[in-house]
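Tutorial, part two.
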Amino acid sequence: KKYEGNHWDDVISQYKEMELQKSSLPVEVENILSVLRNKIIDSQKKSDDPCIGNFLEPHVIDLSKSGHIAPHVDSVKFSGDLIAGVSLFSLRTMILMPSNGLGDPILLPLAPRSLYILRRRYRYEYTHEIIGPDTIKKWPNISEIQHLTFDR
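Running the prediction step on this input gives:
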């Protein structure tokens, strides 16, 4: 399948997307998803303010080398109260920006096999984006921006 140009909401470009239907997944994939769900649940149980709800059906987004995900706050209808993602094959960078435009960006390097979870404040009060090569030009002093890395 070739890469799509732009997503219906213009947030994602140069991508392939696939929704995973639980009934049609190989056992190996379901086992991996189970491990990820348990890691998310465990991280939430350790939180001062746990946010554990029902999991929506997962989907996979494959970005081309030139692809990116523009700054946005996901709709609760399509994403629920918690957003989690795994960077599978390549190093990408996520930028979180306060959605009110006040404050500094937070850069999250997403190494292959890393898991990120956005909830509460970072879920609703920050936009998130995955930058591509064209987007990086917006950040001329990228080395001076705060880098934040979480445990994998």
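The two ends are 31 Å apart (CA to CA). In part three we will examine how such features are distributed along the chain.
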